[in-house]
Amino acid sequence: MSKSTNLRPQMSQTSIDSRSPISLIADPQSPYFLHHTDHPRSVVINPKLTTNNYVVWSRSFLLVLSIRNKIGFMNGTIPKLDATKPIFPSWTRCNNLLVAWLLDSITQPIASIVFYVESTMEIWNTFKQNFA
What we know:
This protein is an all-alpha fold. The chain is about 50% helix and about 0% strand. It has a domain at about 45-130. The protein contains seven helices and no strands. The model is unreliable at about 1-10 (pLDDT under 50). InterPro entries: Copia-like_N.
Protein backbone atom coordinates (compact mmCIF):
# COMPACT_ATOMS: atom_id res chain seq x y z
CA MET A 1 0.00 0.00 0.00
CA SER A 2 1.34 3.41 -0.94
CA LYS A 3 1.96 6.02 1.74
CA SER A 4 0.09 8.63 -0.27
CA THR A 5 -1.48 11.52 1.57
CA ASN A 6 -4.03 11.94 -1.19
CA LEU A 7 -6.60 9.49 0.15
CA ARG A 8 -9.47 11.34 -1.49
CA PRO A 9 -9.56 13.23 -4.77
CA GLN A 10 -9.53 16.99 -4.31
CA MET A 11 -11.08 19.69 -6.44
CA SER A 12 -8.51 21.32 -8.70
CA GLN A 13 -7.54 24.90 -8.00
CA THR A 14 -8.99 25.82 -11.42
CA SER A 15 -12.39 24.37 -10.53
CA ILE A 16 -12.26 26.17 -7.19
CA ASP A 17 -11.36 29.48 -8.84
CA SER A 18 -14.24 29.19 -11.30
CA ARG A 19 -16.92 28.70 -8.64
CA SER A 20 -18.59 31.28 -6.46
CA PRO A 21 -17.63 31.36 -2.77
CA ILE A 22 -21.22 30.57 -1.78
CA SER A 23 -21.34 27.46 -3.97
CA LEU A 24 -18.00 26.28 -2.56
CA ILE A 25 -18.95 26.59 1.09
CA ALA A 26 -22.43 25.13 0.53
CA ASP A 27 -21.30 22.07 -1.45
CA PRO A 28 -20.59 19.05 0.81
CA GLN A 29 -18.08 17.82 -1.81
CA SER A 30 -16.05 21.02 -1.55
CA PRO A 31 -13.02 21.12 0.74
CA TYR A 32 -14.26 24.54 1.87
CA PHE A 33 -17.49 23.07 3.20
CA LEU A 34 -17.77 22.98 6.99
CA HIS A 35 -20.39 20.78 8.56
CA HIS A 36 -22.27 22.21 11.52
CA THR A 37 -20.48 19.69 13.75
CA ASP A 38 -17.01 20.86 12.67
CA HIS A 39 -15.44 22.80 15.52
CA PRO A 40 -12.00 22.92 17.18
CA ARG A 41 -12.74 19.98 19.52
CA SER A 42 -14.70 17.85 17.03
CA VAL A 43 -11.70 15.69 16.11
CA VAL A 44 -10.16 13.34 18.63
CA ILE A 45 -6.89 11.68 17.66
CA ASN A 46 -5.53 9.02 19.97
CA PRO A 47 -2.78 8.71 20.76
CA LYS A 48 -1.64 12.34 20.75
CA LEU A 49 1.59 12.98 18.86
CA THR A 50 4.74 12.44 20.89
CA THR A 51 8.35 12.29 19.76
CA ASN A 52 8.10 8.55 19.03
CA ASN A 53 4.65 7.75 17.56
CA TYR A 54 4.52 9.80 14.36
CA VAL A 55 3.58 6.90 12.05
CA VAL A 56 0.50 5.89 14.04
CA TRP A 57 -0.52 9.47 14.76
CA SER A 58 -0.11 10.67 11.16
CA ARG A 59 -2.14 7.75 9.82
CA SER A 60 -4.96 8.58 12.24
CA PHE A 61 -4.85 12.27 11.34
CA LEU A 62 -4.79 11.56 7.59
CA LEU A 63 -7.90 9.41 7.95
CA VAL A 64 -9.72 12.27 9.66
CA LEU A 65 -8.65 14.73 6.95
CA SER A 66 -9.74 12.33 4.23
CA ILE A 67 -13.15 11.80 5.80
CA ARG A 68 -13.61 15.57 6.14
CA ASN A 69 -12.23 16.26 2.62
CA LYS A 70 -9.50 18.53 3.98
CA ILE A 71 -6.25 16.84 2.90
CA GLY A 72 -5.59 19.55 0.30
CA PHE A 73 -4.99 22.14 3.01
CA MET A 74 -2.32 19.92 4.53
CA ASN A 75 -0.56 18.66 1.40
CA GLY A 76 -0.55 21.96 -0.48
CA THR A 77 -3.02 21.11 -3.25
CA ILE A 78 -5.21 23.85 -1.77
CA PRO A 79 -2.58 26.56 -1.28
CA LYS A 80 -3.02 29.73 0.71
CA LEU A 81 -5.01 32.14 -1.39
CA ASP A 82 -4.41 35.78 -2.09
CA ALA A 83 -6.38 37.90 0.39
CA THR A 84 -8.19 39.59 -2.51
CA LYS A 85 -9.86 36.35 -3.61
CA PRO A 86 -13.53 36.13 -2.59
CA ILE A 87 -12.99 32.65 -1.13
CA PHE A 88 -10.04 33.77 1.07
CA PRO A 89 -12.13 34.06 4.28
CA SER A 90 -13.34 30.48 3.78
CA TRP A 91 -9.78 29.28 3.14
CA THR A 92 -8.69 30.99 6.36
CA ARG A 93 -11.56 29.49 8.35
CA CYS A 94 -10.80 25.95 7.12
CA ASN A 95 -7.05 26.35 7.66
CA ASN A 96 -7.60 27.68 11.19
CA LEU A 97 -9.91 24.79 12.01
CA LEU A 98 -7.27 22.31 10.86
CA VAL A 99 -4.60 24.12 12.88
CA ALA A 100 -6.86 23.79 15.94
CA TRP A 101 -7.32 20.07 15.22
CA LEU A 102 -3.56 19.64 14.90
CA LEU A 103 -2.85 21.52 18.13
CA ASP A 104 -5.46 19.46 19.96
CA SER A 105 -3.89 16.21 18.74
CA ILE A 106 -0.35 16.75 20.00
CA THR A 107 1.37 16.78 23.37
CA GLN A 108 2.27 20.05 25.08
CA PRO A 109 6.04 19.93 24.42
CA ILE A 110 5.39 19.50 20.69
CA ALA A 111 2.67 22.17 20.68
CA SER A 112 5.20 24.73 21.88
CA ILE A 113 7.22 24.14 18.69
CA VAL A 114 4.38 25.01 16.30
CA PHE A 115 1.94 27.09 18.34
CA TYR A 116 2.52 30.27 16.32
CA VAL A 117 2.74 28.62 12.90
CA GLU A 118 -0.31 29.70 10.89
CA SER A 119 -0.39 27.20 8.04
CA THR A 120 -1.66 23.65 8.32
CA MET A 121 0.85 22.58 5.68
CA GLU A 122 3.78 24.19 7.54
CA ILE A 123 2.80 22.47 10.79
CA TRP A 124 2.40 19.11 9.04
CA ASN A 125 5.78 19.45 7.32
CA THR A 126 7.44 20.40 10.61
CA PHE A 127 6.10 17.24 12.24
CA LYS A 128 7.16 15.11 9.28
CA GLN A 129 10.70 16.55 9.25
CA ASN A 130 11.17 16.20 13.00
CA PHE A 131 9.39 12.95 13.85
CA ALA A 132 9.00 10.71 10.77
